[in-house]
Each structure stands twice: as C-alpha cells, then as structure tokens.
Predict the structure.
Amino acid sequence: MQNSAKWVIDPSHTKIGFSVRHFGISETDGFFRNYTATVHSEKENFSDLSVQVTVQTDSIDTNDAQRDAHLKADDFFNAEEFPEMIFESTKLEATATANEYKLHGNLTIRDVTKSVVFDLEYAGTVPQDPFGNTKAGFFISGSINRQDFGLSFNVLLGTGNLAVSDKVKINIPFQLLKVQ
C-alpha cells in the first residue's frame, strides 16, 4: 500500500541528543535546539525511510553556558566557521527484528564527511491522537568517534582519565506528523 501523505518532523516530540563520558566517571548530556529535517517515505511501515537533517551547531545546549561556549569554539564545533552539521541517509537496512533497521548515511561535521550507521527503531503509528493528528514515532541511537570529525580537544587528568571521551553516544527520539 502506498502512502502519498507528506510527513514532517514534530519538533515538540523530537530531540537531537547526545551524551559523552566526562572525566571517565560520569556523562554529560546535551542536545541541539535548532535543526531542520526532510523525511521521505512512501510505505506505511516506513521501510523505505530516508532523512536529511541539518543541525545548527551554535544551538548546542548542555545546561551549562560556559561549557556551551567552549563547545561552540574552535576546540570543538567552531560554530562560526562551521555553522551546520548535516546527516544524509543513504540506505535503510532491515534487521532480523521487526521494525528495527540500520540507518546508513553520511555525517558531516566541520566539513569532514564520514559514513556512519545508526540503529533505527520504528515504534509505530498513531492514526489519530486526541487532536486528530496522525503521528509516527522512531528512535535513532548509536555512537560516533568525535576525533573522526576533527573535534580533538582533550585534557589528560592526573587519574589517567581523559576529560572528554572520544565516543559520543547519539540518541534521537523523533516523531513525524502527517500533513495533508
């Protein structure tokens, strides 16, 4: 069955989030407030889903203004010179588990583009919420190595731990809204 409806990101139910080990003993979480996304799918089960997401790097929010300013600086994102991060999917690969996929794509940070693979779970569709809207839910998760993209700042602590882990966990719950 074909799905000719248009779907858009529901920003009130979408979060482009991440977490990274801090001092080797805890995690710092954050998210990006500003982004745009284009989503395509013709199938009702979204098995042909493709996405393109553009994130404004200066919209980073870790609940600490001083840390956010450092993350926007050249040690990390250099938001002034590289104002956008972009993810473009290239393939959606089914797994052995229903509604779970491998989302392949290209991620660009600081003008460095690398192939990445994230886990994607299609959580289902609500044909009519209390406001008469049709919505579909998804979860994207995975990790990247920030060093691969030139985000190389770090400090070695006296304990032997690094201030910031190279591994960045990605966590993106998102919801689509069907528009007529």
Q: What stands out?
A: The mean pLDDT is 89. The CA atoms of residues 5 and 86 lie 25 Å apart.
